Amino acid sequence: MRANFIFSEVWIGLRRNLTMTIAVIVTVAVGMALLGIGLMINSQVSSMTSYWSDKVELSVYLCKENSPFEPCTDKKGISEEQKTALEAVIKGMPQVEDVIFEDSATAYKNFLDNQSNNVFASFLKVEDMPESFRVKLGDPDQSQAVTEELTGQAGVSNIVNQRQLLDSYFGFMDKLQWMALSVAFAMVFAATLLIGNTVRLSAFNRRRETGIMRLVGASNVYIQLPFVLEGVIAGLIGGVLAAVMLITSKVLIFDSIQNFIPEALGWNTVAGIISGTMAIGVIICILASFITLRRYLRV
Amino acid sequence: MIHFDNVTKVYVNQNRPALDHISVDVDKGEFVFLVGPSGSGKSTFLRLVLKEERPNSGAIHVAGKDLSKLSNFKVPHLRRRIGCVFQDFRLLPNKNVYENVAFALEVIGKPRRFIRKVVPEVIELVGLEGKAHRMPDELSGGEQQRVAMARAFVNRPMILLADEPTGNIDPATSIGIMKVLDRINRTGTTVLMATHDAAIVDSMRKRVVELEDGKIVRDQSRGVYGQAY
């Protein structure tokens, strides 16, 4: 009985305000979809960051005979004593977790394994490959400090920090994420105002009914619930549309770049994000409705 | 049933009080006319009974409750015990007679079985039998006011407030309206009616409380409208 009555009121309200309802649905849908995409990029970036953090290492290349690099001025290459001393220095650093020495033969083998250009490979000889220390850090964020400390050590030709290569990529993802989140924020703000306006129109349209309800002693909940439910239903429909957009973007965008990145975005994460954005959408609708009702529906 | 003790009401931005130290007692089952010129405070009196307005000073008791101690949360329960009728009927134009009356019960969550039983009874009580499925715009003014009275009475209130119920109705039809109010009064409901209609007050011979500039200038049992004091 009660439920019947309230739902028929809600239906009437939604139908009378059809254009406003559609505006609310679309705004909520786009806002929540952008919020969801922002969160998806965020979770993608953080899962990739933690994946790469395990892998990132510093390559400390050593001087060889006639090495063209600036620090190898004596053109004689690194001596065995220097090598041992350098290894001790590296191992002595607190940030360093592990050090592996890669000699020319191993470097050549690794190069051939990764190299598809056979013509280029045929020029290279084992002796051309530099020797290096592969330094693994406990905390990848310390790579800058370690690099600075090792630069200028005797026998070090150059240091390649793999993290710097990844940073530009992460930086791009970061910007994308913030763009999506700030547009999402603007959309949520617009949605809040729109819902407020819709509820206001709705309250005005039904002022006769609510006036009589007040008079015959209907409780506040009974008077306000239809309006709040209108907002909730519009928010839910918007949320469902946002979920469809998020699933589509997962399939079309995130799955297509999966080939280039090791850590794919799982369906579990997507499901979590979808339910999260839906909850946020509905909560915003409820809050906006309540705040507006307090102003425009004197009980 | 209704007890005003030294009640003063001043609206914001007004110097003159709408009600000025008013004390009135209305007992259970009484029929009281509230008369006086426009702006004398009749409507303010009714609004105070409903707790639509708060007095600036003084105490109001309605149906045994001290309104100043009644929380906002409980105001709807107070209003369920008070029926209201207005000059402009206030019917819902998109609902028929039955639905308009049933609406008052639906919104306070009464079960459907109860509604099906009592609504036809009260429609008959106000003399609209056979017209339950008419829309308000198919009814005369007098009939619309009967619908409004049915809606006000359907929950068997202890008090019925009528704010110029015959104001939009011709004198002949008004007599019918008054008969219905009298019938409602005979069921034990206290009736408080604000009116300008001298003929009706004179013919009913009930208690008359006259207001002027927010003060009670006459309180007379079995009174008439224009009698000098």
Automatic annotation (TrEMBL), chain A:
Superkingdom in the source lineage: Bacteria
Record-annotated ABC3 transporter permease C-terminal domain positions: 182-298
FtsX extracellular domain residues: 56-159
Gene3D superfamilies registered for this protein in UniProt: 3.30.70.3040
Keywords, in A-Z order: Cell cycle, Cell division, Cell membrane, Membrane, Transmembrane, Transmembrane helix
InterPro entries: ABC3_permease_C, FtsX, FtsX_actino, FtsX_ECD
Membrane spanning stretches: 21-41, 178-200, 221-247, 267-293
Subcellular localization(s) per the UniProt record: Cell membrane
BP GO terms, sorted: cell division
GO cellular component, one term: plasma membrane
Subunit architecture: Forms a membrane-associated complex with FtsE.
Function: Part of the ABC transporter FtsEX involved in cellular division.
Entry's family note: Belongs to the ABC-4 integral membrane protein family. FtsX subfamily.
Name of the protein in question: Cell division protein FtsX
Organism of provenance: Herbidospora galbida
Upper taxonomic lineage: Bacteria, Bacillati, Actinomycetota, Actinomycetes, Streptosporangiales
From TrEMBL, chain B:
Complex formation: Homodimer. Forms a membrane-associated complex with FtsX.
Compartment annotation: Cell membrane
Domain ABC transporter: 2-228
Parts of the chain that traverse the membrane: none
Entry keyword annotation includes Chloroplast: no
GO CC aspect terms: plasma membrane
Family recorded in the similarity comment: Belongs to the ABC transporter superfamily.
InterPro entries recorded: AAA+_ATPase (IPR003593), ABC_transporter-like_ATP-bd (IPR003439), ABC_transporter-like_CS (IPR017871), ABC_transpr_LolD-like (IPR015854), Cell_div_FtsE (IPR005286), P-loop_NTPase (IPR027417)
Matches recorded under Pfam families: ABC_tran (PF00005)
Its membrane topology: Peripheral membrane protein
PROSITE patterns noted in UniProt: ABC_TRANSPORTER_1, ABC_TRANSPORTER_2
Protein name: Cell division ATP-binding protein FtsE
Biological processes, Gene Ontology terms: cell division
Role description: Part of the ABC transporter FtsEX involved in cellular division. Has ATPase activity.
Entry's Gene Ontology molecular function annotations: ATP binding; ATP hydrolysis activity; transmembrane transporter activity
Keywords assigned by UniProt, alphabetized: ATP-binding, Cell cycle, Cell division, Cell membrane, Membrane, Nucleotide-binding
